[in-house]
Amino acid sequence: MTDDEKKTRHRLGWARLVLGAFSGVLAGFVSLCVAELVSATVRPQASPVVAVGGAAIDRTPPAVKDWAIRHFGTNDKLFLQLGILAMLALFALVLGIVALRFRRSGAAGVLLFGIVGAVSATSRPDSTSLADALPSVVGAIAGAAVLYVLVGHLTRRVPSAEPADDEREEAPPSGAGWDRRGFVIAATAAAAASAGAGVLGRALNSASGQNAVASRNKVVLPRPTSAAAAVPKGAQLRIPGISPFTTPNSSFYRVDTALVVPKVNAATWQLRIHGTGVRRPVTLSYDDLLRRELIERDITLTCVSNEVGGPYVGNARWIGVRLADLLAECGVRPPSKGGTADQLVARSVDGMTIGSPVEDVMDGRDALLALGMNGEPLPFAHGFPVRMVVPGLYGFVSACKWIKDIELTTFDSYDPYWVKRGWARKAPIKTESRIDTPKPFARPGAGTVMVGGVAWAQHRGIDKVEVRVDDGPWREARLAAEDTRDTWRQWSFPWEAAKGGHTLTVRATDRTGRLQTDKRTHTIPDGASGWHSVVVTVD
Questions:
Q1: Which one is predicted more confidently, 174 or 51?
Q2: E-assigned strands of 223-324?
Q3: Residue 182: which residues within 8 A CB-CB, separation 6 or more?
Q4: What CA–CA distance (Å, rounded) separates 411 from 469?
Q5: Residues linked to residue 285 through DSSP beta bridges, in sequence order
Q6: DSSP states of 87-118 as a string?
Q7: Residue closest to 12 by CA, chosen among 180, 175, 171, 178
Q8: Could you give the angle at the alpha carbon of 373 between the alpha carbons of 388 and 275, nearest 5°?
Q9: C-alpha to C-alpha distance for 70 and 285, rounded to whole angstroms
Q10: Beta-sheet pairing, 295-302 with 282-285
Q11: Mean pLDDT throughout 336-364?
């Protein structure tokens, strides 16, 4: 054999290897696109990427989940899905190479991924039918068939007097011919058909939520019986860089486990209240809630994943029904008045369970089943049609979005989602403060620099904020006007800045006289604590 022939055989071998890998990736693409189309006949949450992603979230250690939120913020779900797709592409690439030698084994590997997706989909808390397995199974069968056909065009059985074992199909000699034309036609047809299926599936899934969108568009929130007072003059400081007193809906933080935001039709939505100590169980519709007395309140929410100085806190004007009134009508009494249930378990349409202390919900604070946010029906991302809002408690023990069920029970008899993963059963919000301006590593000019930020201690209120420059004495900041004890409070401090590097630190004292602790703790199990500091250089 000449050197040119050897080089040609070598190039053909590498070309076949690359095309084998490509065949695996294309088979994975076909699987996902077909699964997307089939999920439109079941539900979007049954899509394998969503199902596997949800299962991954459920099984992720709390510390890792907290790290993801801290580094990726509200984009954590996007990065998770991209990670799943990258792993799938790598897995499919390897299967394509394996299929060059073990054709049936490679196709079976695609089916294995389908089984993983099917198990993930049917084991999700919100799964109600084995039909959730169909997208993964049908998609995997389509992908396996495509891989088998494509590899068939790249390989041929080595001539032999004895039949070859199907599971030991030898790759042809590297210089042997392969069906280039058949491969190109098959690959092009598979790519085009699957892309069309994926686009159609995405369109159908989007259309399935149109009824929910239409139901939200029809909502006209009644004038609340008890309206919130106007935000006091002076509650919003005119300092560039400070957080607005009322957080716009578009900027309000979102931290949850839903890879696909549920779109619930308000016309068919219902809420069931039942359980221990409920003498009169009830099922309510959205219109039932709209016909009740509504109250409007400014309430600041905080996520337990918020690090010291973090962004996962926001203030909004909520409209809703007093949850305590509903519970009382059902015959529920708090433990302090002889009630038998000490935990309220709220269930979401996506399977999330959140446990709240009954005593806190019924102690007179404005715990709401919220219908509106900042003057409009709840956005889908924030819980439309109905969510819970409880002042003074971190969201993971109070702020159930897309709520559909309330069960009264005890802390001893049931552990909700986050408690099973090592978080606290009860979690009142800690007294915290944050420097919004100047930003870390800012370079302000020498002279008077306005330092400003927010402080919060929901349901207790903020009494004092102090600022320290480097290791100097604590000096009291000027507090903005207070709206209510359930909202955050802005503060400002005029600093006569001298040239050089400096560290600014803030701390707050709540209305109970408790000083914000300087002890640094992580968010797990009941929220972060410590003083917030920023380092700046004065030019």
A1: 51
A2: 270-275, 282-285, 295-302, 313-322
A3: 153
A4: 45
A5: 270
A6: HHHHHHHHHHHHHTT-HHHHHHHHHHHHHHHH
A7: 175
A8: 15
A9: 37
A10: unpaired
A11: 97
Q: Residue 14 pLDDT more than 90?
A: no
Cis amide leading into 244 (omega within 30):
no
User: What pLDDT, on the 0 to 100 scale, is given for residue 167?
Assistant: 43
State phi, psi for 63 to the nearest 5 degrees: -65, -40
**Beta-carbon contacts of residue 282 (< 8 Å; ≥ 6 apart):** 272, 273, 326, 329, 330
Residue 343 backbone phi and psi in degrees, to 5: -130, 135
- Tens digits of per-residue pLDDT, 151-187? 988 875 444 444 444 444 444 444 445 788 888 999 9
What tokens appear for 471 in the block?
A: 């290791």
- Helix/strand/coil percent split, the chain, to 5: 40, 20, 40
> Distance between CA atoms of 318 and 320, rounded to whole angstroms?
7
Q: How far apart are CA 198 and CA 29, in angstroms?
A: 9
- Between helix 76-99 and helix 62-72 the angle, nearest 10°, is 110
Rounded average pLDDT over 441-464:
97
The Cα 67–Cα 57 span in angstroms is 13
How many whole angstroms separate alpha carbon 344 and alpha carbon 359? 9
Residues 60, 225 contacting (CB under 8 angstroms): no
Spatial separation of the C-alpha atoms in residues 446 and 272, rounded to whole Å:
61
CA distances from 360 to 185, 202, 330 (A): 66, 43, 17
Say which residue the tokens 């299962």 belong to.
55
Question: What is the mean predicted confidence (pLDDT) over 130-157?
Answer: 89
**CA dist 40 → 13, 26, 88, 208, 258 (Å):** 41, 22, 21, 8, 18
Q: Which of 68-77, 92-101, 133-142, 252-261 has the lowest mean pLDDT?
A: 68-77
From the centroid of its chain, how far is CA 171? 46
Question: What's the CA gap between 365 and 356, in Å, rounded?
Answer: 13
* Distance between CA atoms of residues 132 and 122, nearest Å: 6
Q: How far apart are CA 129 and CA 42, in angstroms?
A: 9
Residue 4 has pLDDT above 70, yes or no: no
What span, in angstroms and rounded, lies between the C-alpha atoms of 294 and 227? Answer: 8
Only one residue has tokens 């000699």, namely: 173
CA-angle at 496, arms to 490 and 501, nearest 5°: 95
Residues facing 510 on adjacent strands: 462
Match 């892309």 to its residue by tokens: 195
Cis peptide bond N-terminal to 438, omega within 30: yes
The mean pLDDT of 452-461, rounded to a whole number, is 98
User: Around Cβ 241, how many Cβ atoms within 10 Å?
Assistant: 14
Helix (H, G, I), strand (E, B) or coil at 466: strand
